[in-house]
Amino acid sequence: MFNFLxxxxxxxxxxxxxxxxxxxxxxITLSAGxxxxxxxxxxxxxxxxxxxxxIHVPSAWLALITYAIMTIYxxxxxxxxxxxxxxxxxxIAPIGAVFTILCLLSGSMWxxxxxxxxxxxxxxxxxxxxxxxxxxLIIFLNQTFENREVREKTIAIFILIGSVNLxxxxxxxxxxxxxxxxxxxxKLSSPSIDISMLQPLLTMTLAxxxxxxIIAILRIKAEILLRKKYL
Amino acid sequence: MxxxxxxxxxxxxxxxxxxxxxxxxxSNILFFFLSIFIFVFALGAEEQLLRSIxxxxxxxxxxxxxxxxxxxxxxxxFNNGVIKIIHMSGISYELFVFLKILSHFFFVQIPFxxxxxxxxxxxxxxxxxxxxxxxxxxxxxxxxxxxxxISASMNLLNKTNFSIGSIIVLLFSIxxxxxxxxINNSEDSFxxxxxxxxxxxxxxxxxxxxxxxxxxxxxxxxx
Lengths: 231, 223
Description:
The structure holds 2 protein chains of 2 kinds.
Chain A: H1 8-39, H2 53-80, H3 84-115, H4 123-141, H5 148-162, H6 165-175, H7 195-230
Chain B: H1 2-20, H2 22-43, H3 47-66, H4 75-79, H5 82-88, H6 93-123, H7 127-154, H8 164-172, H9 174-182, H10 190-221
Helix pairs in contact in B: 2-3, 2-6, 3-6, 3-7, 6-7, 6-10, 7-8, 7-9, 7-10, 9-10
């Protein structure tokens, strides 16, 4: 049933079915999310700038999720010798990089009015900047080696080593005393964010992940076509 | 018994190579001192300023100068086939990598240890900071050798992008820098930070033979 996740032909078949509905859902969720963001209440301290959160938080989540997907696919690809996972690693690395850049840019735009500075050497901010460097290194490594097998496996092992950074990003606000606020949505007991702000946030997250998924599908299909021509 | 003899012969060979390439090591140390001078020229020779930032500068320059000769870590052995011969003599790739890390630690990083007190004179560092720097460098340089092994074995077949190996070493040495420079800022947490550094060293000593051996096998298969 989940064969399309590891088999390129099944993936192409499955994607041809779901692509058009996915685009429609993405358009609907994006417009609904933007509408909800427009209607959402202003913060009593931060005023209008709180609406940066609806870009900042989803892109940060998706940057982490993209890296986690790459880590899982690296383990699968190295352990079971499935070459489709290396296609995915190559295809979705730039998407994660773009989400990380979005997160850093919107964060520093939010930090200027709130903290009074574009950048502080805070644990959360620094670890996300390191995540961006790791993404860029993965993109550069993709264009480095001549031999394809060496390139793919090198990148997979590099992704595995770099995944040490993921728990550091997640728990940096708990381990160190930082300027960045601790997590307020992913608490298991009850989120410390109001429902009127949680609704647009989750909708925007859904819209962002749909857009990322669409770009990922297009890139993966292009990569499969590129490899079939050479095989 | 045979294994010990083989390991002994391995280190004997490394010692010979060390004597033949000793000029390379001295130019590395020269690079280290020259970059210290350049830092002092760029910052101005205020004694108070240099004393407050000296430790961080020495650590980061040690790091940068130890990445200079990283390409030689495996490349000669790989190109003239010594890795295969050692493997045929019964030493696994993982043990070979481990021995190579140890020899790099003894023959490249330890000579830097002698040059550290001289460098500390230039910055007028207090004597307890010099002791801390020596202790953290003994532990931290082992981590740097492990990282160098990983990045050098990763770039065995890389013929276009030479700087990426150094970038990878710099990227993963960030925790080493944080903990080893942080020792001086808080006096009472000395033991805990030393323990953290030793923990990171043990993690890398466990991880790097495995990953370097995987890279070497991959490179040998596609040579």
